[in-house]
Amino acid sequence: MDTHSEEAVESQKHPSQPQEPGKGTTFLRTCFNGLNALSGVGMLSIPYALSQGGWLSLIILFLVAILCCYTGLLLRRCMDAKPLIKTFPDIGELAFGGKGRAMISTFMYLELFLVAVEFLILEGDNLNKLFPNTSFHIAGQKIGGKRSFVLLTALIILPTTWLRSLGLLAYVSAGGVLASLLLVASVFWAGAVDGVGFHEKGMLLNWRGIPTAISLFTFCYCGHAVFPTLCNSMKDRSQFPKVLLVCFVLSTISYGSMAVLGYLMYGENLMSQVTLNLPTRNFSSKIAIYTTLINPITKYAIVVSPIATAIEDTFPFQNSRLFSFVIRTVLVISTVFVALAIPFFGYVMAFTGAFLSITVSILFPCFCYLKIKKNSISLGLELMLIMAIIVMGFLVAVMVLCIGQDFDFFYFVQQWPGSYCDTKQSCCYPTTGKPATDFGIHGLWPNYNDGSYPSDCDPNSPYNQSKISDLISRLQKSWPTLACPSGTGSSFWSHEWVKHGTCSESILTQHGYFKSTLDLKDKLNLLQILQSAGIEPDGGFYSLNSITTAIKQAIGYTPGIECNVDESGNSQLYQIYICVDKSGSKIIQCPVLPSGRCASQIEFPSF
């Protein structure tokens, strides 16, 4: 063992010395904190993970739980090597010296910080969907949309971060655990009582979706960054292995139950968050949706606690209550700034999952344990198991990177040519002549549930017109170009494929992408739908609500309406967004609708 590393740990000041008898967090409260750390936003995505891998992927869920529980035990054994080890960075220093401390500190605190940022972004997204027109003024500045809810969430969360005692924080964690149980119960009620039913059979095994399933399963159990803090807070640290066992068993039961319920209810039609599938009109669905708003609020404080403690411990007056308030308040403010600067939940989740959580929860515990215990580990079963976990950790990280460009649904976008042409930019008819008086295809766009989208995903997959030669006549009719100068349409189709189509290659080939889009156009005659409701392209003005209602009554789902402005400043019907599942064939409820910038009365210009 590195003597220098031992001395470095011994010589450090640790205000959190081993708990005195009668002080510290009880077994039950530590269990609440541990369960709250494990049962996170993964509860929403676990049914989708099962739908990707099939029923047999439940075995993978249980294996991942066992392996992550084992790496948690490895951290506990590393802490036993020296009584003064209190934190994850201490373990890194004992194993690899100052460089080990620096690396683990960087990964761990960055992971926890970004998880806290994720919670704020998630709350902002969800609340903005429920209350889309909310805004308020601060110092004469109007703050609305997601930004207003991020700030509101931060104000609600702030007092929970002032609780330095994990014993007191356990009461907040108990609320988080209760919210997770209520979420499972609400989903069960929706299936058993509210008419959704459990009729889907699902697939036994889907090899193609296994990487996605493994990645999501692993992310559900990445709570290791807070484990040393929980262990050090206990009255009796020797009971921490039992805490880990209780937390992993109960969280696995919750995850497994939610996965099975969701898959039986919606099968292959599951979206990335099960609450997006639930019928919003039902009371149980509303309970489930509102419960998802509680979870991030209850988990934020336990996530940032190690960061706040580490900052406080670097100053000589760390026991000052006022100083603690200031540090923790500044920490919350910093996460707010980052949440507002990086508004898309998907980007943060992908980076956190691939580069940080898996490294902190799987790879670092194994590396540190092998180094610290190198003189006592024989070439036996334990060494083989640890090496296998390391290999699995690297593979999962690669899998997450590989699926990082995946998406949740398509926007099928049609545009009205009259509105395109009735602007200052004007338009040019294609070389084949003036298009028919009908909505034309703009594109089929992969999207994420948070409103962000992938683009230009595969530079090695250029547009090749020979692959769609049998579709050219249909493309010229239904997907015409109106850009100047006049063209055949091939440059327009090439642009759509390169920017959007390449991001759906895991599901649709180039031919399949264009054919699916054309088939959707044939299925959705938007002009006929509007005309049947008395809405004609005659230059008249119609209410935005009447247009939305007419389409919703025809297809069963609310469309997105986008407007542009003509030379006179009138708001006019420009594009209509219909949401489609990842297969590119089934119309679904939109997880998020685009901001259409429409007036209450909009013009439907002639063409």
UniProtKB/TrEMBL annotation:
Indicate how the chain sits in the lipid bilayer. Answer: Multi-pass membrane protein
Q: Which residues cross the membrane?
A: 53-75, 168-190, 210-231, 243-267, 287-310, 322-342, 348-370, 382-401
Q: Which GO terms describe its cellular component?
A: vacuolar membrane
Enumerate the subcellular locations listed in this protein's record, separating them with semicolons.
Answer: Membrane
Main subcellular location: membrane
Gene3D superfamilies, from UniProt? Answer: Ribonuclease T2-like
What positions does UniProt annotate as the active site of this protein? H442, E496, H500
Q: Which GO terms describe its molecular function?
A: hydrolase activity; L-amino acid transmembrane transporter activity; ribonuclease T2 activity; RNA binding
Concerning Pfam families, the annotation shows: Aa_trans (PF01490), Ribonuclease_T2 (PF00445)
What's in the keyword line of the UniProt record? Amino-acid transport, Disulfide bond, Endonuclease, Hydrolase, Lyase, Membrane, Nuclease, Transmembrane, Transmembrane helix, Transport
Disordered: annotated segments: 1-23
Entry keyword annotation includes Transmembrane helix: yes
Q: Where is the composition biased (Basic and acidic residues)?
A: 1-13
Annotated Amino acid transporter transmembrane domain ranges read 24-401
Could you say which protein family the record assigns here? Belongs to the RNase T2 family.
Q: What is the protein name stated in its UniProt record?
A: Amino acid transporter transmembrane domain-containing protein
Q: Which source organism?
A: Nyssa sinensis
The lineage is:
Eukaryota, Viridiplantae, Streptophyta, Embryophyta, Tracheophyta
